[in-house]
Amino acid sequence: MTTAAPVLLVSDHVAGSVHVLTVPDGTVTGRLTGRHLSEHAGFLALPGGRVACVDDRRGELLILDPYGGELVERAVPVAVPAEHLACDPAGRRLAVTTGLGKNAEPWSDLLTVVDLATDETARVRTRVGEPGVTVLGGGDPLVVLRHREPGALAAHRFADLLAAPPGCPVVTPHELLPLPGDGHGDAQAPGSGHLFVATGEGVHRARRKDDTLLAEAVIPWGAPARGWYLRLDTRRAALWSTLRGGASDPLRWPQWTNQAWRHDLETGRTSLTELGPGLVFRLALTRSRTAFTRIHPDGDELLLLGDDGIVRRSSLPAMDGAPRRGGTPWEGVQRRAVAASPGSDWVAVTRGGHGEVHIVDARTGHEAARPRLSTPLHHGGHMALRSRTDGAEGDPVGR
Asked: Which fold has domain 75-394?
């Protein structure tokens, strides 16, 4: 594929396939089979429109180039099941943590680091759990693991990890910062060297100084709720999350409250926008809007939030097997994935179980195409929308 137009990568991690579609017409131009990508680790944007992801069945880090001659540019063995994926701001040094997979409790303590420039790789043991990860640049990059129960930020020098001997040795962080035990959600602002972690208290932040981490003031949520997802806005230097409030009982998910949370990193101002009840989780950033999906027994919606604070709402067709009243929104149900590029005004939403993708103009809410793929996209699948020069690699954490 030689066009510089946006492309959409759609993963069906259950069926084991990846489709490549042109945007906005939805034409399928490529497909991988036998590739079960980690939905939790997600897609990591790299320079030149490429993305990184992890094949959880084969145990490989994949570098995909939808604009190159071969979709799979490189495959590197890594430890799985992949939990989180991140790189340094240059897009050269990557880290992959491991998590639960299909197990009831965390069991793996393996961390893999990869240098794409030298093809060097190493696996080490850290601490059993489900760690988040960021890779801070500046001199020798620092791999910072976000641990839970007990909570901590653990800093490791990338060069030390890469130089570890064979046999997956145990490594000790050269610095620890205390953190609440309920951390979930990580972001990094490459320009300032800050990292951010979402907790029940608010967003904890730390700044790199030489090889150390300096804790800074916590950013409050500003509401009786919390965010479980955190991402950097590469367009306007801001952090985004979705605040979930209400009863913690997952059987009461239709009554959960949801607010879009935006914190301007330059002014320090925080804004909240009501999104409505139900299940709202991940978000996607287009050039001019922020996109969310809301799942609710009374009807699903695509929500497009503009800079003016106005939310445009578009109805989405129901999913067979969608979450119901009296059940949880997680187990054995269909969901939706959402994807966008900061370099375009297109947004894509899946219809889990139906194999359909809605490609929508974020400026108007108009649906331009609804391609049906050759797999059902169970659990909603996962997506990445890229263009060659959209700057999405400015967010060096997998999504």
From this structure: Methylamine Dehydrogenase; Chain H (2.130.10)
